[in-house]
Amino acid sequence: MRATAVRRTALVAAVASLTLLATACGGSDSDAKGDGGASGAKDDASAKPAAAKALTSAELEKVSLEQGDVAGHKVTKTGPEDIAQPGDVTVDKKECEPIGFAFYGVKRGTPVGNAGRKVVEEPEKNESADPEDALAGMLDVTSSLVTLASYEGDGAAESLAELRDSAAKCATGGFTLSMKGSKQKVTKLTEEKVAGGEEALAWRVQMGEGDAAAPFKLVSVRQGGTVATFFSFNLGKTGAESDFALPTALIDAQVKKLG
Fold first, then answer.
1. DSSP 7
2. Are 214 and 193 in contact (CB under 8 A)?
3. What is the mean pLDDT of residues 112-141?
4. How far apart are the first and last CA of the chain?
5. Helix, strand, coil fractions of the chain, as percent rounded to 5
6. Which of 42, 54, 78, 166 would give a disulfide with 99, using CB separation of 3.0 to 4.6 Å?
């Protein structure tokens, strides 16, 4: 039973990871993101932020995460193959398009600049563990797509507001995403608390149902005119009841560089 469960977890998680890396890694120099979710920032949402200078893609590259910025994580740049174009992604409900597009890094609004990173947590080594535990440990790592999008004027705040509204409308009932014909069913959105920047929002996103379900985490943080988005999954966590922690180390490191 134990070995079967590990093999099933590995299979389902591998499918989830391949889907994410093939379709959701859209955050490099030509694509923008913004997300919304839950945070203590809702109380300030109505306060209009001061206009901030929009950063170019070159300037965003200088404040993006680099290898060594986050202990225990491997950081690499996104490339053209990671970019999801607007025509590549469709959402079956119009009101869910903003949140659905955010998963895949589809451009929203009119960003001045963009940058992206892939960040993978390094597994802890335990040479004394038996093979099954060792496999489980190797799978229990969080991988994240981190994207930055910079906007003029109130564009960044408007991006988060749009995501917050979309999430509120699509939290129940679910919706279906299609990426070049490959469909993914979002069955649940659950708000989570997250801190960082001037405004921070987050969700637990469940794709699929029952044993085939996989949790993802979506976080959006605004610092000035820049929106940082984190879309994460954990290979070792599958099933409707499974969960994993928000990538707070990445969030803190990225916000620090933006500040």
1. H
2. no
3. 77
4. 49
5. 35, 25, 40
6. 166
CA distance 144 to 44: 28
DSSP character at residue 198: S
Q: How many CB atoms lie within 10 A of CB 68?
A: 8
CA distance 158 to 256: 22
- Using one digit for the tens of pLDDT, what is the confidence trace for 24-79? 433 333 333 333 344 444 444 444 545 678 999 999 999 999 999 999 999 999 88
Please give the sequence-ordered ranges of beta strands (E in DSSP) within the chain, or none if there are none.
Answer: 73-77, 89-91, 113-121, 142-150, 175-179, 182-191, 199-207, 214-223, 226-234
Q: What residues contact residue 155 under an 8 Å CB cut-off, 6+ apart?
A: 54, 109, 110, 111, 225
Alpha helix (H) ranges present in 53-209?
57-62, 97-104, 131-139, 155-170
Neighbour-count burial for 157-184, b at 16+ CB within 10 Å, e otherwise: bebbbbbbebbebbbeebbebebeeeeb
Mean pLDDT of the chain: 81
Give the sheet arrangement for strand 214-223, strand by strand: 73-77, 113-121, 142-150, 226-234, 214-223, 199-207, 182-191, 175-179, 89-91
Answer for the pair 57, 63: CB distance below 8 angstroms, yes or no.
no
Q: Model pTM?
A: 0.79
